[in-house]
Every structure is written in C-alpha cells, then in structure tokens.
Amino acid sequence: MPTGPEKARPKTFQEIASRGGVYPPEAYEFVNRGLAYTVSKLQGGGEEEDRARHVTGQQLCQGLREYAWQQWGMMATAVLRRWNITCTFDFGRIVYELVDCGILRTTEGDSVEDFRRVYDFESALESEYRIESKA
User: Fold this and answer.
1) Of 123, 53, 34, whose CA–CA distance to 86 is shortest?
2) Quick check: 101 and 82 in contact, CB under 8 A?
3) Among residues 6, 16, 27, 74, which one has the fewest Cβ atoms lying within 10 Å of its Cβ?
4) Are 118 and 62 in contact (CB under 8 A)?
5) Helix, strand, or coil (residue 19)
6) Among residues 14, 18, 9, which one has the least CA distance to residue 104?
7) The whole model's pTM is what?
8) Rounded to an integer, what distance in angstroms lies between the CA atom of residue 72 and that of residue 111?
9) What is the pLDDT of residues 44-81, one digit of tens each?
10) In the chain, helix, strand, coil percent, each to 5?
C-alpha cells in the first residue's frame, strides 16, 4: 500500500501529451512506432525481446528518419515540424518522456544527450531523401 501521494503514470499518448508537454499524441506514437521499425530493421524479430529491443539514441534517430521517409516522403519535415519536432534532440526528449511514464526503458549508459545533433534535421530529411525504385 502506498505511504505517500503518488502520481498516476499516464497510460496513453493522449495522457502523456496532456501533461503539459510540447508534443502532441501523434509525436509519441510516431517515436514508439519508429522504435519498433528501427529494432526490426537492425535486429530482426528475434525471440529475445528485452535485450534485442535496445538501440542507441543515434541508431534510433537514423531509424526515425527512415521511418518518416516511408510515412510521408518529402513531407516528413513538414509533418514533424507541425508536431514541434525540429531536431534530433526532440526525439530524445520524447523518448525520455516515454521512459518517465514507464512505456520505454533505457540502459545504464543511455542519456538524452545521445540524441543531440545526430544530424542536421532539415538536410537529413529533405536533401538526403531518395525515392527507392523496385528495379
């Protein structure tokens, strides 16, 4: 039984966003789905869930860039900007809010600083975008 006042942890992205953050629910959902995409791309769908799901902040930023390209193509920057995501550090802030809420976990060596300046946001999402052909 709790002995003092405890804050209830939000369980949905809507609840997380409504706590007064700067990101809408869609931003949290995007990062969460982008994490699954990144893990799948880097590690496949192996059985060792906990250990296999860990990726670095830099790997996640790269995966989120690719995932954004898949979702919105050249509009990726505009969509993310609408959600107040303008740099890779924003991805880190979202990840660590999800960690604070118990949705994601980190390892001992992880830090929100791992997300700082991973790439120049605008050029990485716009000028580096390539349309893949199925040739």
Assistant:
1) 123
2) no
3) 6
4) yes
5) coil
6) 9
7) 0.82
8) 29
9) 765 555 445 789 999 999 999 999 999 998 899 999 99
10) 60, 0, 40
